[in-house]
Amino acid sequence: MSRKIFWLVFLFLTIQVYSQNKPLTLRDCIDMALKESPDYKLANIQMKSSKAGISASYSGILPRLSSSLGARSSTQGPSEYVFNNITFRRGDTTTYYYNFGLNLYQNIYDGGKWWNNIKLAKLLFSNSRLYMEQVRQYIIMNVTQKFYELLKAQQMLKVYQSALESSEEQLKKTEELFRVGKVAERDVFKARVNVGNNKLSLLQQRTAVENAQMELNFAIGRAPDVPIVVVEKEYKRPIKISKEEAVNAALSSNLELTMMEMEKEAAFINYKINKADLYPSIYSSFSYSRGGAEFSKVYTPLDKWWNTSIGITLSWSIFDGFSRKSRIIQSWLDYKSYDEKIDKKKKEVLKQVDALLNMLNTYIEMLEISGVNIKSAEEDLRLAREMYKLNSATLLEVLDAEVKLTRAKAVMISTMYDAKIAEAQLLYLMGEL
């Protein structure tokens, strides 16, 4: 039995370790973030709450029916009275009364409040759904950015590791050449300094990787210190997006802009609700009650001991100390303020679209150039090393060639993943992420 428990525990721990160290794709990270994000969960709760508000908004037009069942006792203490010069005394008396009632209330007209409240509730539900979509797209954009920042850091770590290995190999060759008297000792010192510089760059990049891992872990809802490895099976270059396409999509589909438009419409409906106080309200009522000094009269006989009433009421507020006027003015100004808010937001979105488009197009062009630069730097390094062996070039030229190759690779990697980040940010602005 103990062996079975041992193997079960071993299998469980193995699965846990594998699941924590399993390489994660971008899709994996996004799914985890959407599952764990408290903002996304709260947005979902808010959407369900606003959906329930639609049903509540119909209360303004649906009839209201209430019932009541009551019992009352009344006791009068001892008393006396005089009649024809004769004093009469009476002891304490107690009377009872039992009653049952039904009351029906129906709103007929309230200046348009009820249908505007229904419109407002439906609009708020649509707005909450849009907000949930905005949160979803923001999470995708944020996780995408952190994912590619970690990928970039990991790839840069490989570049610096390769540079360190290359410099260590060059140090060995320089030491061999020094031993046979082909180069001066200062070349050995320079080679050692180069190795030290590459080790320092490698240490700094390891710190950058750890920071990027913590950022991605936080973005997907995990503890910062959980080991994480990310992988991308195939790098897909961003495609060029025309300015006209980006601008049209941003103005028509940007989620923040669309939500502002909805908020403006909601503000106008709220203005109409406040304005309805200027008009009279009409409602009807009906009541039925029965009862008496004995409880049995509440339910029998049904053809006796009952009362009914029916009525219609018109109510019109004439003066309320200017509070109604203030509410109407404030709601109107709140509605009109959205013109400036929306105009300002459009300018911000267009500015961001222009900046991201320029950045993305620059990155795309740089990708083409970077590939050529790497090939050129690799060839320059190869020639510098050959010439150094033949004593036709200095070690400084070799080291410069190594630095240029490392820089070319670093630029290529930065450009690749910065382009993907810019693409995600642009698609978020366009509402298409």
Please give a structural write-up.
It is a single chain. By secondary structure, the chain is α+β, with helices and mostly antiparallel strands. The protein has 2 domains: 327 residues, Outer membrane efflux proteins (OEP) (Up-down Bundle); 77 residues, Outer membrane efflux proteins (OEP), CATH 2.20.200. The protein is 66% helix and 14% strand. The protein has 9 helices and 6 strands, in the order H-H-H-E-E-E-E-H-H-H-H-E-E-H-H. The strands form 2 sheets. A 4-stranded antiparallel beta sheet has the order 1-4-5-6, with no helix packed on it. It has a two-stranded antiparallel sheet with strand order 2-3.
Give me some keywords for this one.
single chain; Outer membrane efflux proteins (OEP); two-stranded antiparallel ribbon; alpha+beta; 66% helix; elongated; 433 residues; four-stranded antiparallel β-sheet
* Helix-residue proportion: 55-70%
CATH fold name of the largest domain, please?
A: Outer membrane efflux proteins (OEP)
Portion of residues in beta strands equals 5-15%
Radius of gyration (Å): 40 Å
Give the SSE layout.
Layout: H1 2-21, H2 26-36, H3 38-57, E1 64-76, E2 79-83, E3 86-90, E4 93-109, H4 113-179, H5 185-219, H6 243-253, H7 255-275, E5 281-292, E6 306-315, H8 323-389, H9 395-429
Helix pairs in contact: 2-4, 3-4, 4-5, 4-7, 4-9, 6-8, 7-8, 8-9
